C-alpha cells in the first residue's frame, strides 16, 4: 500500500456509501494509495494550499456565511488535486470542528436526484466524523473530473482531476 501526502490533501471519513462501485472493501495487498485530508471549520486545509484560515464555527450556518463571502475566491487560488486512475483511500480527519462532519466525493456532474447517475456515476459519502475522529473512504477513480466537499461543514466544492 502506498501512502501519498499532498500539500493539498483533504479531510475524509468512513462509513462510505459507494455509488456506481462495488461496496466491497479493497483486498489486502492491493495497490491502494492513501490521500490524507484535514477538515477545519469551513474548509479542507490541504485543498487550500495547506493554509488553515482559522475560521470559527459553532454550527453549519457559520460556514455557510463564511464560504458565501470567501469560498469562490479561495477555490480559484487553489490548485486541483491531480491523481492517476486507480484505487484510493481518502483518510479524512475532523480537526477542531465542534460538530459532526462528513465527506462527499463525486463526479463533477453527479446529480444525487438522478437515478441513472446513482447507477452509473461515482459518488462516495458518509458522516459521523466527530471532533478528532478520522474516517476512511475507499474508491476506485477513473479518468475524469470530480468534486469533493463536506455538506455538513459547508466547505466549498474542491476540484479533483484524474488523468493517466
Task: Summarize the biggest pleated sheet.
Answer: 6 strands, mixed
Report the structural category: mainly beta
CATH architecture: Sandwich
Number of DSSP E strands:
11
Task: Give descriptors for this structure.
single chain; 164 residues; mainly beta; Immunoglobulin-like; 6-stranded mixed beta sheet; 5-stranded mixed beta sheet; 14% helix; 38% strand; globular; disordered N terminus
Give a concise summary.
The protein has a single domain (2-162), classed as Cupredoxins -  blue copper proteins (Immunoglobulin-like, Sandwich). The chain has 2 helices and 11 strands; from the N terminus they run ββββαβββαββββ.
Describe it for me?
With 164 residues, this protein is mainly beta. The protein has a single domain (2-162), classed as Sandwich (Immunoglobulin-like). 14% of the residues lie in helices and 38% in strands. The strands form 2 sheets. A 6-stranded mixed β-sheet has the order 2-8-7-10-11-5. Strands 1, 3, 4, 6 and 9 form a 5-stranded mixed β-sheet that branches. The radius of gyration is 15 Å and the shape is globular. 39% of the residues are buried. Residues 1-24 have low confidence and may be disordered.
Topology (SSEs and partners):
Layout: E1 2-4, E2 17-19, E3 32-40, E4 43-44, H1 60-76, E5 81-83, E6 86-94, E7 101-107, H2 115-120, E8 123-129, E9 134-141, E10 144-149, E11 158-162
Parallel strand pairs: 1-3, 3-6, 5-11
Antiparallel strand pairs: 2-8, 3-4, 6-9, 7-8, 7-10, 10-11
Amino acid at each position: 500500500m502506498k501512502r501519498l501526502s499532498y500539500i493539498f490533501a483533504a479531510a475524509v471519513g468512513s462509513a462510505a456509501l459507494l455509488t456506481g462501485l462495488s461496496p466491497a472493501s479493497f483486498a489486502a495487498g492491493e495497490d491502494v494509495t492513501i490521500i490524507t485530508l484535514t477538515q477545519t471549520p469551513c474548509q479542507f486545509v490541504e485543498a487550500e494550499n495547506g493554509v488553515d484560515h482559522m475560521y470559527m464555527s459553532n454550527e453549519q450556518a457559520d460556514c455557510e456565511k463564511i464560504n458565501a463571502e470567501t469560498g469562490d475566491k479561495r477555490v480559484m487560488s487553489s490548485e486541483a488535486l491531480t491523481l492517476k486512475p486507480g484505487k484510493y483511500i481518502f483518510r479524512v480527519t475532523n480537526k477542531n470542528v465542534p460538530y459532526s462532519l462528513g465527506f462527499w466525493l463525486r463526479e463533477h456532474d453527479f446529480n444525487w436526484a438522478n437515478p441513472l447517475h446513482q447507477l452509473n456515476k461515482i459518488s462516495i459519502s458518509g458522516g459521523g466524523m466527530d471532533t478528532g475522529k478520522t474516517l476512511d473512504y475507499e474508491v476506485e477513480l477513473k479518468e475524469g473530473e470530480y468534486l469533493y466537499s463536506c455538506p455538513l461543514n459547508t466547505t466549498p466544492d474542491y476540484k479533483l482531476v484524474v488523468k493517466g
